[in-house]
Specification:
Layout: E1 19-23, E2 26-29, E3 34-37, H1 40-43, H2 52-62, H3 75-88, E4 92-96, H4 99-116, E5 123-127, H5 136-141, H6 145-148, E6 158-161, H7 166-176, E7 180-185, H8 201-212, E8 215-219, E9 243-246, E10 257-261, H9 282-297, H10 300-318, E11 325-331, E12 334-339, H11 345-352, E13 355-356, E14 358-360, E15 364-367, H12 375-390
Helix pairs in contact: 2-9, 3-9, 7-8, 10-12
The structure holds pyridoxal-5'-phosphate.
Amino acid sequence: MEENMNTMMPTYNRIPIRFVRGSGAWLYADNEDKYLDALAGIAVCGLGHAHPRITKAITDQASTLIHTSNLYEIPLQEELANRLCELTNMDNVFFANSGAEANEAAIKIARRHGDNRGIENPQIIVMEGSFHGRTMATLTATGNRKVHAGFEPLLSGFVRAPYNDIQAIEKIASNKASSIVAVFVEPVLGEGGVVIPKDNYLQELQRICDENDWLLMLDEVQTGNGRTGKYLACEHSGVVPHVVTTAKGLGNGLPIGACMARGIASEILIAGTHGSTFGGNPLVCAGALAVLDELTTGGVIERAEYLGQRIKTGLEKALDGSNHVKEIRGAGMMIAVETTEPCPELIQRALERKLLLNVTADSVLRLLPPLNLSDEEADQIVEIVSGLVESLGDE
Ligand SMILES: *Cc1c(COP(=O)(O)O)cnc(C)c1O
């Protein structure tokens, strides 16, 4: 077969399974093996695979108009921006094609905010353990040496602080408040291991930002779109940021990202300062509108909250007293079992049990299932995952 010729850059360590079809929470390989998908394309397919409402919106739009460019007005883009602003209390939206690109827009807003205030060397506070993407600016913002390695020189203008550490931010504020323009942070660390913010962490960040005239910018690329049981994860804390980015679940698999801004931050990217050829074209906007319809009118976000609790308490019960478990934590349908030793072997073992999941930060087994599972599917995940964790270290 020709398919295995090495004509693709080897940027991924791929698992040798070829999915050819999906339905709801299930994926079918070319040999007809059937897998329960507890990863959803890394938090992308929040409504599952081949969702009828989204499929219809996309196919209708594809047969009508796919792309016109941002040289012209795009009614579907305006409609999507209105819907997003209603949902998030933000004032306006820039559409990109990915999470990293949405974050690039946020970083440009922060730098320009500094420029507008006469700050020559603007600095953005970012967190250790964070992940913001793979472009040069977003990999610089990312708090993981492995993502930086070999790509130096990194961009200047970023200051790093430990996550969940308000004192570290206070210290930066007292030392160099005048060169800081923004704090850029994930409300729950995703790739960093599903790290939940401490009580009041986000509120305290907002307070410090307000006191110092800094922008609070949240990366909700992974946590947005109902993943944590609210449309945005920051709703759990009542924080309304100046800038918030999202992507992954917004298109349920279509490439779309959004950078939303409020107040002063919404007036920064004026004509000629930023752009994207594909961003927010009619096709992806039609798909994203169907996603928002389903999330909000289909009761999916409330169900994500319920299912997340069901899976988390199910795991807590099944793994009670297990000496392989360091911590079980989660926010809605972002659920993690941190094990006492590295657990990458569980990926393969899960495949043998026809379950898709992921291991991040070496010892964090991560579940990001579709938000609309049946109770039975949720219980099936609990049963398989608890068995896997108990098998850790077995031959
Ligand atoms: C996945 C992710 C990104 C990068 O998104 P891409 O679409 O891969 O560019 C950025 N931030 C967070 C929090 C993510 O989880």
